[in-house]
Amino acid sequence: MTKVTEGEISHGVQDVGKYYLDFHLLAKGFVRQDSVHDFVNSDSDGDFIALSGSKSEVITLELSSKFMVVDPFPYFVAIYDSNAAETRPLDVLANKVDLVAIYDSCDVLEAQHLALDPAYTAVCSVAVPPARLTAVKRAPKLAANGNLLLGSLNTYGSLSLINKSAEYNRWNPVEGLNIAETLRDTLLPEVDIAKIKDFKSYQEYINPAWITMFAWLPDDADATGQHVLVLGTAAGSLWLLTLSADVKTLLSHQETKTSMGRICHIQAFKDLLLVGDSNGLIHLYQLPAKGNTALALVKPLWEKADRMGLQMAVITECPRMDCYYITCCKAAHLLTWSIPRTGSTDCLQARIYVGGMKITALCSLENSSYVAGTAGSCLSCVQIIHENNQLSLQMQSIAMGVLQDFQVMGLCTSRHKNLMTLLLYRNKEYLNETVSQKNQLVMQVLKVGNQDPLDQLVRHLESNKPMNHYTDLLAGLRLHVFAEENWQKFMDFCPLDSIEFADTATEGQLQQLQIKFHVLQNVIRLQSSHLQLTVHIQKSRDELQLLLAMLNITHIRLRLQFIGSLSKRSPFQEQAIKCMFEEAHRLINKLNDDFTENHALGSTARTFVEQMGNHIQHLHEMLGIPVISNPQKQLHRCSVSFVEISLSLERRYCSLCNRQILFELDNLQELYESGRHLTCPVCHGSFATEMFNA
């Protein structure tokens, strides 16, 4: 692990947080981007990044904790060839009018505008410029088939919906609903073609059908499975489209006409919608509540038509001040507003000059602090100071040696703000040794601050949230183990001989064992990959065997304790009780066979077996189930209920450790309290589904 940054004071401002100015390089990687621009991370939602710096390919990055020692890059790359299926939906409209006559009627400025915008004249152009990606954004909800859902918009107004399963390397188009064609042919009224004789009327004809930006609305628990898409058009209209769970049917639509020009930025946060146009205006809208049909304008944040269309903004929520912070980039300035959550339109605002000619990257570290990158290869930490009903911004530079040769094109922070990803582009021609390097976007994954990754995971983990919610914390932990920086500390975490098993099993103890499982699994992978560490691997594997027995028996005790508290049991609960007792005795017998007195872990295993023997005996008596003297051999069993799994073309499995469970979730839910989220008892991961078509 290499320390690559140090904080230093700049512009005479005071230190606004030394903690944030400590960054360590954890991993490097690169992807192909042949049309790199500012804010290349079109959508960075916690553990997912969608890139829009390519002419022909949609490239996405999913944060993963499954990377290997030989290539410790924590992102899973997926690709979609957008040019293969893209069309130009505006050509259908342009073919209906006489463009030559319209061009002849234009004055000099109108003719220039018409000729320079290929979306207007592609139908009669000899060489049509290739489409470029305008925005790529992931839907907050999964599609009906459980796949990730993504929208991809290009410069010709073609909006594609694509999907893929998690950690699969190819996106596939969603067949059925064409958003651009539906807007053009169904939602918009017919226009009298005979009246289109000049450039102004031609614009009024084309612009309403030209999708220039879009966004997905945040997940609404009330709208089960439905997706809500917001479209912005060149005419300044905003469309709310409600799509079915399989995104093949348009359920409802609603148009809001605004005073803005061509929409170039849309960002949704809770019930707020931030909208910017190409003239530079920035408006804040409130999403319609139940019973309402139109967006409500909360406040025009920026009314000066400076021709600097909004490219990047960050919206955060501050519970302490009971407000939202909205921070926008304007050239080399950051503009920040505080909007009260109570509904008041009174707001505070502040601005700061970051430096250079323009800001090219922005991300939040907390609800009141940001990191901004500029075209001059500078990084700065900006802090919001909100006191005494006044708002101000303070800045501190971040010195990084790598920025001498690279320009920052994007910044992303993970869900728990423990990792920050820099998207860099070579700014010196001599650095490109090969032609392919000219199209490379270099990525560097940095650790934010000095916090211990293990402490962060222990502090954040909740029993009712799957481990998938903490992917960034798991990835940070794995990167630290693979960096071999004090890896013995991880090996010594939660020694098995120090764990005390009380008469009543607890969720907290199960969580502690699950964290130990992740740590030990990473250590074993490290030991397997380095020759000098292989001498330790057998000891670690023996420890893992004992740990898995502790995990499964603790899980069994918790489920049996819950069932024992019920006044009445279902047939499945009765079946699960017998299977879990059988599994517990099988595990105890195997520990007795494998961990003899001469084994290094023999004493620990014997102590555990003696304790569990007493606890299991007590559960037998409480549930009225006789002791099983000769449990069956290990079968292909569900890892939650330990009921045997029959062969099927469908399977449900843990998305982290791949352990299989019964396909019928309703049955498994009977083993838990009402409202409990089902997670893997070994790694605390969520479950995924796989269906094979015969």
Structure, explained:
With 694 residues, the chain is of the alpha+beta class. It is built from 14 helices and 33 strands. The strands form eight sheets. Strands 1-3-30-29-28 form a five-stranded antiparallel beta sheet. The protein has a five-stranded antiparallel beta sheet with strand order 2-27-26-25-24, with no helix packed on it. A hairpin with a 3-residue loop joins strand 4 (41-44) and strand 5 (48-51). The chain is elongated and about 95 Å long. This is BcDNA.GH02340. It comes from Drosophila melanogaster (Fruit fly). InterPro entries: WD40_repeat_dom_sf.
Helix/strand layout:
Blueprint: E1 2-3, E2 5-8, E3 23-32, E4 41-44, E5 48-51, E6 57-63, E7 75-81, H1 91-94, H2 99-105, H3 108-116, H4 118-121, E8 133-138, E9 148-154, E10 159-164, E11 172-173, H5 179-187, H6 199-206, E12 211-216, E13 227-233, E14 237-243, E15 250-257, E16 263-269, E17 272-277, E18 282-286, E19 296-302, E20 313-318, E21 323-330, E22 333-340, E23 348-353, E24 359-366, E25 369-374, E26 379-387, E27 390-400, E28 406-413, E29 419-426, E30 440-448, H7 453-460, H8 471-482, H9 487-491, H10 507-529, H11 537-564, H12 571-594, H13 602-623, E31 650-654, E32 660-661, H14 665-669, E33 687-691
Antiparallel strand pairs: 1-3, 2-27, 3-30, 4-5, 5-6, 6-7, 8-9, 9-10, 10-11, 12-13, 13-14, 14-15, 16-17, 17-18, 18-19, 20-21, 21-22, 22-23, 24-25, 25-26, 26-27, 28-29, 29-30, 31-32, 31-33
Helix pairs in contact: 7-8, 8-10, 10-11, 11-12, 11-13, 12-13
